[in-house]
Amino acid sequence: LGGRGSTPHTLFWGFPRYVFSWHCPDGPGLSCPFLIDTSGAYFRRDGFAGNYLGGMSPPQEEEPDPSDLSVDHDYFQEQVWPRLARRVPAFESLRVRGSWAGYYDYNSFDQNGVLGPHPRLENLFLAAGFSGHGLQHSPAAGRAVAELVIKGRYETLDLRRLGWDRLVDGEPLEERGV
């Protein structure tokens, strides 16, 4: 069950991602939603005092070394900031306050979540590998796992297609709506 950047037995893999925080008192107001620009740069407000969080995923051929979680500050200066400033002219004068790096959760088999009981380990239920969709899918995934644990079956949504069978059978789940 290998994939790009993984060993043959690795299913879940992470790629480093940088998140930057900045201050811009003249930036978008409180009604500004989480925004993902067509260039891939994204940002959201962070509180009430003109603070923001954001970043951008690199192109696949420029993925950073997964063994190094140090932040590439030049990446913000050269790639992210120009895109943000084109989208929001007030960001021309932003001041970076901090940054951090972490791993992007990635299911190397088919980039979809794996949900349900493990096929070989009794009493182990998993909800992992949603490849960046975890926050969006967490309410449904949490309810599904709770139903499996309490009732022994899905009741609200039938999520069997996200189960382990597709991995064991080597049949990736392809998203048609992306």
What does the model show?
This is FAD-dependent oxidoreductase domain-containing protein 1. Required for the assembly of the mitochondrial membrane respiratory chain NADH dehydrogenase (Complex I). Involved in mid-late stages of complex I assembly. Pfam families: DAO (PF01266). With about 180 residues, the protein is α+β, with helices and mostly antiparallel strands. It has two domains: about 10-105, D-Amino Acid Oxidase, Chain A, domain 2 (2-Layer Sandwich); about 115-170, no CATH class. The protein is about 20% helix and about 25% strand. It has helices at about 75-85, 135-150, 165-170, and strands at about 10-25, 35, 40-45, 50-55, 95-105, 115, 125-130. The strands form two sheets. A five-stranded antiparallel sheet has the order 2-3-4-1-5, with helices on one face. Strands 6-7 form a two-stranded antiparallel sheet. Strand 2 and strand 3 form a beta hairpin.
Brief overview:
Required for the assembly of the mitochondrial membrane respiratory chain NADH dehydrogenase (Complex I). Involved in mid-late stages of complex I assembly. With 178 residues, the protein is α+β, with helices and mostly antiparallel strands.
Q: Can you tag this structure with a few keywords?
A:
five-stranded antiparallel β-sheet, two-stranded antiparallel sheet, elongated, 3 helices, alpha+beta, 2 domains, 7 strands, 178 residues, D-Amino Acid Oxidase, Chain A, domain 2, FAD/NAD-bd_sf
